[in-house]
Amino acid sequence: MNPTSLLVMKTLFRIYRPVVLWFAGILVIGAAIADAVITRFTEPEFSLWLLVSSTAPRYWLMVVGIILVTMQLRQYISNGVTRRDFLIGAGVFGLILAVLAALWVPLGHGVESALLGLDGQLPAGYPPFSFSVALREFGYMLPGAIAFLVAGVAISGGYYRYGLWGGSLALLPCALPVVATEAFLGIDGQGHLSTRLVPYAVALAVSLAVTAVAAAVCHLALRDAPIRRTAE
Amino acid sequence: MIEINDLAVRYGDTVAIDRLRLSMPTGKIYGLLGRNGSGKTSLLSVLASYRKASSGSITIDGVDPFENAAIMRQTAFIRDTLDVNDQERISRILCFAGWVRSTWDTGYAERLLDVFELNPRKRISALSRGQRSSLGVVLGLAARAPLTILDEVYLGMDAVARTAFYRELLADYLAHPRTMILSTHLIDEVADLFERVIIIDRGRLVLHEEADELKGRGVAVTGPADAVDAFTAGRTVLSRQSLGGVRSATLYGRLDSDETDRAKAAGLTLGPVGVQDLFVHLTAGEVSR
User: Could you list the pLDDT tens digit for every one of the 289 residues in chain B?
Assistant: First the structure.
């Protein structure tokens, strides 16, 4: 990564730091309150944390992807950064965010599990936490987080580059990473993470492959995109 | 040196720039003039790497600026609509420019905020049209970019702000010489700043020459109405104004020494012509004869 891409990545973290902290804080406080209320009246047979934190950060990352193209791209270009350096810097920034989001799930699950088991026994039916479970959760979350982020960039990139009609036509192909991830790496109503239809290795390979194709197409579309005043 | 060769910019069937050829020595203040839709912003957008040319080429010091990190880093392009997020505060936008631009002068930016009476805590969405333009001037000048392009940044500015803008631009240019390109419709107001003038119309180059040379293309003749009418008969008159028995006519074309002597003998006063009059003549061709 060259110095300008590194600068892009660092400044994006400076811009998003307060947003990330607010988002994480709201998620933690909300889950803590909800957990406290639920455990007061019943023994939960699911992990509320898994239910919330495995989906909310994905959609948040999708929004980040959209904002990166519609708002940040022209800001950086207007301050003398090339599209190429922006895309590299923003790509690394997004990848780190996705890894953090993927780590966030098992970390919270561990804390929730420890708190619920304070009296020595976890509620019956609650998904137990262990290192292997944490690894599985991370392995489940990461491709989804990347897929949602890339889909956000691709969808907004389609509109930014090709306008309303072109962007609308590209909408479905751009959303394929999300479709593939949701189809193969789903979540059940009780917050249990599970692979569907195909084994995990296949699901992971399909999700990553579709995401990589979307990222490559998006790069091709944005590498020489005219800098519009606003997304049209 | 900025070299433009057979540059074309097309939007579908619309031709914004049509095989434009231009050589621009660097280190000067350029006035880019043209009517609405003449292709000014398209030309500047290509120059600033905001868009790729449909055909032809632009080189800055021999290098294609598009996606060239070294050239883009040294270019500041301020559009009439700012490339900022409306929900952000001025202070945040200046802070961001400071993070990204190595040439950014924070102290100067703060001083310009004072000059234009901009409150750094205000959000962009709360700024008036003129204040947004003033912020554009701050972003453009404090960037201290070797190639500074200001595209109609005066929109909505009141007379006081515009005067401050012209004063600051000139002072900063003298302190930090660089290439500045100003696109404007307020021609006479800014004309004294220009070292060179470029006029384009319908995407084509109409004229590119030194500002003083351009002003010498015409002459303002003032005196008794009858004497002025007699002297201007048969010549290209760009504009005519009368007050009582005194008339002033702007002529297109240079006067030779005999004509100058004849005018003086007739009691007429000769003066420089406004760039705006020449611009109107060159782009609209609406003259009285």
Answer: 999 999 999 988 888 998 999 999 999 999 998 888 889 999 999 999 999 999 999 999 989 999 999 999 999 999 988 888 888 999 999 999 999 999 999 999 999 999 999 999 999 999 999 999 999 999 999 999 999 999 988 888 888 989 999 999 999 999 999 999 999 887 777 878 888 989 888 888 888 888 877 777 788 889 988 888 888 888 888 778 888 888 888 888 788 888 888 888 888 888 877 777 777 777 775 444 4
Beta-carbon separation of B100 and A76 below 8 A: yes
Contact (CB<8Å) A80/B72: yes
* B60/chain A closest Cα distance in angstroms: 15
Q: Distance (Å) from the C-alpha of residue A223 to the closest C-alpha of chain B?
A: 9
- Chain A: closest CA distance from residue B78 (Å): 8
- CB-based contact B47:B181 (threshold 8 Å): yes
Q: B97 contacts in A (CB within 8 Å)?
A: 79
Test the A interface: residue of B100, B155, B178 with most A CBs within 10 Å: B100
Q: Which of B69, B76, B99 sits opposite A85 (nearest CB)?
A: B69
* Cα B53 from chain centroid (whole Å): 22
- Tally of CB atoms within 10 A around B189: 15
Question: Which residue of chain A has the CA closest to B139?
Answer: A79
Task: Please state, as a whole number, how many other Cβ atoms lie within 10 Å of the Cβ of residue B17.
Answer: 27
**Nearest one of A3, A180, A181, A197 to A81, comparing CA atoms:** A3
Predicted TM-score (pTM) of this structure = 0.85
Query: Exposed (0-12), middle (13-18) or buried (19+): which is B36, by Cβ within 10 Å?
Result: exposed
